[in-house]
Records
---
Amino acid sequence: MDHFLYRDGALHAEDVAITEIAAEVGTPFYVYSTATLERHFRLFEEALSGLPHLICFAMKSNGNLSVIRTLGALGAGIDVVSAGEYLKARAAGVPGERIVFSGVGKTREEMRIALEGGIRQFNVESEPELAALSAVAASMGVTAPITIRVNPDVDAKTHEKIATGKKENKFGIPISRARAVFAEAGRLPGIEVVGIDVHIGSQLVDLEPFEQAYLKVADLTRQLRADGHDIRRLDLGGGLGIPYERSNAAPPLPLDYGAVIKRTVGDLGCEIEIEPGRLISGNAGLLVSRVIYVKSGEEREFLILDSAMNDLVRPSMYGAHHDIVPVVEPAPGGEMLPYDVVGPVCETGDTFAKQRPMPRVAAGDLVAFRSAGAYGAVMASEYNARPLIPEVMVKGDQFAVIRARPTYDEMINRDSMAPWL
Ligand code: LLP
């Protein structure tokens, strides 16, 4: 459920009409609903109630400072994957002890920044990274709390570009080598092992792969404890999917996911961390765009929008589906026409949807892409010299621009002329 509903014939974000935001900030823009973000966070809180836990929002899905502060104020931890994300989380007011640092390629400089600022744990993904972290921490005279990410070799049954838990993927260490690597970690200076980490992929719409992976983590916990390690934290990653197509069966709910966690690792006495991104931010955001032209091709009608693949890359990158709805409520039972919905960028890949049935739309109309709050703005680029689009946040009847649209001059002046030119 989200808070983007038609009211009096027009799409609203909570109590604010989308047309009102469009009139003030221009199109295209992203808009986020505070109530939806908060609701989704609380669903995970309820799902894990009864277990000691920390829900670490994966800020790679949406890194806006206002989004991070909204969640941070509810007690969320943050899962970061770069020094940039770490520093943004701190700038949004999240304390270091609630930040976990994931990612396969942390540099020594990034490790130093997080150790200096304070960090809950590093999720270490390889032996060379372990050695580097040990050296950095020891040189600073501090100890780095770590989990080691294991690769459980489980098929997440999701899009190949976002599956991470098979042995051919670059993530984690093979679970078969885990005992040896934990033993190595136990011997290294500057390292304190606190737990195990796993993350098998994103947009999972089936709980079975989670169950398989978490059972393997439970077994490993017992083994490692028998080896003498104090395993007190389990980071179970993110990945729970969302309903991108309203017409499809809904994926499992956080409560069902929580039940899997309780059933598989709930009796180990560990503190549980999870790193959901998409389920919290995805349906909390829309991309709002205006139709520039309706162009009749030989065989099809093209809706040419003012947003493009540089603003929302998921359809061209993953073939992802986003529901696209008119901002003015269509008449119930009205005629539906098949449109090819495209952007102005000069490649055929700049296509949001093909032959998508939609109510009749005219040039100048506003349309909204649903489920665009995760992996939308964060993956945007200025391809074709199209300035990054603004982000807006709504809370009740208020709205605020939380990232301004750069002017053309600002965009141009980020380049500089080589001195010989
Ligand atoms: N933790 C780790 C270590 C991750 O790699 C990810 C996502 C998450 C947590 C959060 O997963 P979520 O709950 O959001 O599924 N750009 C792609 C998704 C990439 C996901 C990468 N890792 C997309 O637009 O679908």
---
Amino acid sequence: MSENLSTSVQYLKSVGPKRAEAFSKIGINTIKDLLFYFPSKYLDRSNILNCIKIVQYVRNGYQGEVTIIGEVINKELIHYGKKNIFKVRMKDSTGIFECVWFQGIKYFTEIFNEGDYFAISAKPVLTKYGNLQFVHPDFDRISKNESLEFLHTGKIIPFYRVPKELREKNLGDFSLRKIIHQAVEKFSDLVEETLPQYILKEKKILPLNEAIKNIHFPSDNDSLTAAKRRLKFEELFYFECLVALRKSLVESKKKNYKIIVKPEPIKKFLNSLPFQLTKAQLKVLHEIRKDLESSKPMNRLLQGDVGSGKTIVALIAMLIVVTNGYQAILMAPTEILADQHFKNISRLIKDLNIKVSLLIGGQKKYEREKILKEIKNGDAQIIIGTHALIEENVDFHKVGLVVIDEQHRFGVIQRSELIKKGINPDVLIMTATPIPRTLSLTLYGDLDVSTIDEMPANRKPIKTVLRGESKLPEIYKFIQAKAKEGYQTFLVYPLIEDSEKMELKAAETYYNSLKETHLKDLRLALIHGRMKWQEKEKIMLDFAAKKYDVLVSTTVIEVGIDIPDANIIVINDAFRFGLSQLHQLRGRVGRSDKQAYCILVTKDEFITNSNMLNINFEYLSPAQIEKSKTIIRLNSMVRCNNGFELSEIDLKLRGPGDIFGTKQSGLPDLKYSDISEDVDILYDAKEIAFNIIKEDPKLNLEKNFIIKKVLKENYHNNLLLSQIA
Ligand code: ADP
Ligand code: MG
């Protein structure tokens, strides 16, 4: 039979039906599937050291991992009292070294046999007899030939994950490598190109079949890099195509209403404010105004650090819409915030004769029905609530603007939800978590972005300090002294192990004991996530009215709450929080012209002065990595007050998946690229994708057929595409 890419792997040499079945269990059915089973790592001669070098390294105090290739000389099982030790002695051309195991001995005894070659990776140690030793090293088996060829030609050896399904059928590292080699030699040229030629040329990108050859069996590092670049580019390019298509779809639908800015009421409102808008606020307001007046619906992200004054900007946008006879909706992430927005906005526009309505859970039935009626008949002009506002069966009269106070919660707004309701309004999303640029390109790639990059002038930078737990008594004294000057304090305890019960316990326990001991002269209140919003609201209002000096809380105060006289925040167990969360928490203070303080309290072991930001994680153990990341996070908070800078650091430390969660966030599921690292490729891919969709929104030009085809075939399950189709 003539074999092609869709032929079963069964027909490859040394596969056969049984092994084909094993392949099938790990999702590899056809030859094409096998071609796309890429190595999980590579062995590259430039990374290999020999015995002599390694011993020198260790003597010089080197702490990292090394890789060495050796041949097994012998192995022995040593009984040491009750303990067993398995020791393998190996050699390379410069000397002898040993590998030892204390656990899983039976397994390792079977693997290591005299005359076998292995690449060994681990942190080297010198025993008291001066022997070079590796404890529980990583190892990869290679053949003698590979080892020789490798040393002489400088080739790169690929290593594939060999899942147990394959091992059970006697497929190990060598045999898999051989089978894949065979497939690549014979079939990779049949793989069809998935990017248009003109892009390959313009961006000097490898054709797909060459990339496949090079990703499996690269002749050198450059060709491996080129192959990776090709795969990353393609992945990011198609992702950005979807983003661009969605943007173009939103823009293709015209609004069915017209907004004209009426300056008088806006001027009157601005004059009633006790402050002037900052330049940055005026700039973004201008951008929003242009969107509102345009016939295309606005799709804009308003980002600005905590306290930069986003609410006022959104409110002015709402006033513009309302004075044109349309309703404006403001959605907050929690009921307590919706309630706070309602109170603030009602107060700010009390002279404008505009009806503001609040719809949230926990309202009395008759009250709720009254509000629903106002919303439906149009009496309600500004409507404030949680996300439930658009999810539930609320009928609106004429919506012109939806503002989403997304705070730090990411999640792409389901515009389709709105369109289903028969409205295609202007949408403004506010976020307080500054998003690293790469992420805003992906997460919010279809939005226009306005940034408030300046704080109101009266703000003093918050003083942030890092203190060990042993300093707590002094911190309590500080809180007491400052209370005499009218300062109020947030005392935050983190969520422990994701359990609300435990979280509550921590805060509650401290509340009870502090009340009797260190802070007995002050008035304390407790607030936590399991209270009803009405209870929380009462405590927040009382705190704002200065009935308390100290608010002991779990992280419920994290979002949006605005209390001007609370100017100290103490964050306990600060090491448990992520950077953006710490910055959000800190943003609760420093909202007036008084000096504010943020005190990060943590285990004493995390207190160090060294500047560890330049640490190279490659050479550390996982526990060391965690510790140094924690130290970096905490010290970054002390050093830096700028949310954007912190978000970039956070992205580097944690990677995007960890920050935003995967599925819910709308973050793409990327196989080959890492948006925190592949920034340049991402910019390139985005630029090209957006230009193509701008020129050819339906992908009807012949040169773009291939794009349309790939999108249809490979991305039909994609959330974005399904929203477009
Ligand atoms: P955020 O951007 O975090 O949502 P807010 O909109 O809540 O910030 O604003 C924080 C505080 O700053 C509010 O009390 C608000 O009234 C005040 N504010 C907003 N703009 C200015 C300004 N231009 N000058 C002084 N204070 C301002
Ligand atoms: Mg806000």
---
Amino acid sequence: MILIGLPKGRLYKEIRQLLKISGIDLKEDKRKLIFGSSEKNIQFSILRGWDIPKFVSYGAVDIGIVGKDVLLETDEENFFEVLDLEIGKCRLSLAAKEKKVSELAGSTIASKFPKETNKYLSENFIDAEIIELKGSIEIAPILGISDFIVDLVNTGNTLKENGLKEIKILKEISTRLIVNKSKFRTKNKEVKKFIQRIQSDKKY
Ligand code: PRP
């Protein structure tokens, strides 16, 4: 038996579709935290995306499906990132109202992605202050608590509606499959079988 953690929210629908194409139908049940599928040896659990690296690292779930944005920020390490599912594509970008990249030095940047923001700043020898927020990042420049933001951009509508412009793409993001390190060995056959199955069907 393998247990796979799926993120709730926007990605969930796309993942469910990918699984369906691979012939795996979820037997969702609103009252149950763990539910089965059309494959009798594969179970699923819906988790908060940001918690998935932890659940996988602890071996509580064998496999996790999660955005690369979350993996960039996690401190957990006890997993292998084995596959790019090429769904949930978006980008992690720097944005602002009017400001340019050349004005970053000495500025403030609001983000839910402090690690990746800090990486970009240090790689470019820029000294700026990162203000860590948990959500609604676009509001920060509007309310005047930051000059820039670093956030996920998909259609660009949220930026546009809030009078912000995408200035620079820091990272292309997509959905990844991660496997607990020891489960990769102890459940190798089942894990491999599942990976091969969704791998051969992901091009649609
Ligand atoms: C993400 C991101 C932006 C928005 C971008 O938020 O933080 O706010 O999507 O998408 P767009 O370019 O298509 O408008 P999400 O809805 O995932 O929730 P969050 O604000 O809690 O991060």
---
Amino acid sequence: MQIKIDSSLLELVEGDITKQDTEAIANAANSNLAGGGGVDGAIHRAGGPSIMDECGKIGGCPTGEARLTSGGNLLAKYVFHAVGPIYRGGTHGEPELLKNAYLSCLNLASKNAVKSVAFPSISTGVYGYPIKEAAKIALTTVIDYLKTHQEINLVRFVLFGSDAYSKYE
Ligand code: ADP
């Protein structure tokens, strides 16, 4: 589905983030930027070793922030490695940290003149964030940002499986 936010487009699709043709894709990374399973593993497998080389040089990223690398062999020119929170009951600052992880990616997009970004559902896999709560935060953060940043034309959430898609929908 697609929704217009002023002149920008917010899109929800079910699919694989590594196949997206947006200028940037976001990764749900860990704070060591060391690679892992889930979407992180898929991005490094599809993008090739140059992305990990760049991550190694950056060294790490605090929770609630994001770092930029090139996209290696991906269609996307950039990967924004965002570190979402590990869910520990929701009372350890998780909502704010999750919001900031998305905001950091959006700021990287604006700073680097990136007009289209695809996001996975950050923190809702191994990091255990309940997807319905995470979806609300992800969507409100993006919608609020697009309202004041029309330089980004497209934000696409790429949901892995129909269950994740329907939660976001
Ligand atoms: P986290 O550690 O932040 O929870 P995960 O990679 O474990 O990150 O999961 C985040 C979300 O990404 C989950 O909803 C998972 O189903 C989804 N996911 C896994 N592989 C892909 C993929 N190739 N494309 C898009 N989303 C994916």
